[in-house]
Amino acid sequence: MARSRNTADTQTASGGPVSPNIAGKNAIINGDFRIWQRGTSFSNPATGSFAADRWSVVWDGSGATRTVSQQAFTPGGAPVAGYEGAFFYRFAQSVAGSGGTYNLFQNRMEDVRTYAGQTVTISFWAKAASSMSLVRLNLEQDFGAGGSPSGAVSTDLANTNFSITTSWQRFTYTTTVPSISGKTIGTTHSGYMGLRFWLPVNSTFTLDVWGVQVELGSVATPFETATGTIQGELAACQRYFEKSIAQSLTPGASANSGEMWFPNGTIIPGETWQLVKFAVTKRVSPTITTYSYNGTTNRASDNNGTDYVANTADAWRTNDSAFVIKSSGASNMTVAAVRFVFCNWTASAEF
Questions:
Q1: CA of residue 83 relative to chain centroid, distance
Q2: Class of domain 259-348
Q3: pLDDT tens digit string along 183-238?
Q4: What's the pLDDT at 344?
Q5: Average pLDDT, integer, range 11-17
Q6: CB neighbour burial string for 59-98, b if at least 16 within 10 angstroms, e if fewer
Q7: In whole angstroms, what is the distance from residue 29 CA to residue 112 CA?
Q8: Domains in the chain: boundaries
Q9: Residue 88's Cα: distance from chain center in Å?
Q10: Is-contact 88 209, C-beta < 8 A?
């Protein structure tokens, strides 16, 4: 059934069969919250930081206690029949805090051209520990570095004060994305179109969300991920964030699985070099963070698992496809003393 434009409503959790995979109809990457490369639980995450891939939190005020976490569906427990979701997203605020004027989580879709000037339908499933409202949406358009206007343009979506109950419901909203006619798109990158979920401030609540979709048209069709496959969704996330460590481990975990290289002490004593190619081309040249075996940032370890305090592992000559690690400063880093040096790393090309 078609939804009225600019009208919010709900759809029951057990609604109709899931359509065949249609890769690309959903502009939201990781809308089913399957990918969590940075970890699975975040206590008091910093404003602007990420939990589930592609989803960041933004807030102000002080004194609040927030936890963002991955929650697992029991088999058959996903909110729509025919789609076996693995995880959902939980935002829990156990201490209200004070002075807050905004409290939200968001997903930024690459390129401000995304659906510009077109009718789209936003849909998602949600439930809460106890009934709550004031969950509202807005869209944000950013034109990239050097673009015009220089700051992001925010569009509040009327009538999206959704009433969330303790049972899964599907919420939908149809609107028109603002036109970008007459605007200038940045030359460094093409900006983004963001979807923001605004939450209560200075209060306590627990909100669960799953199955976020933004698609063309005035009808909320059955949910599908952006790529239609698990591997495709991971690769789509890795365009913005990638790690060398196993997917089951958190960046900085103690592990000897990472990029390894042999020192060439006969050419440059005490220095080693390694070219690292990314699994997926990044959105822009990323920020590299290295981790020693012991999880210390910007350090490397030798084959004995020892960190060199004065040995800084730093990334340079980075582009969107690869980077070079240079590790230096260990006085005894010779072929005889050390067989290899290694580190784990992350590469972030987020907005």
A1: 22
A2: mainly beta
A3: 999 988 899 999 999 999 999 999 999 999 999 999 999 999 999 999 999 999 99
A4: 84
A5: 41
A6: bebeebebbbbbeeeeeeebbbeebebebbbbbbbeebbe
A7: 15
A8: 8-237, 259-348
A9: 14
A10: yes
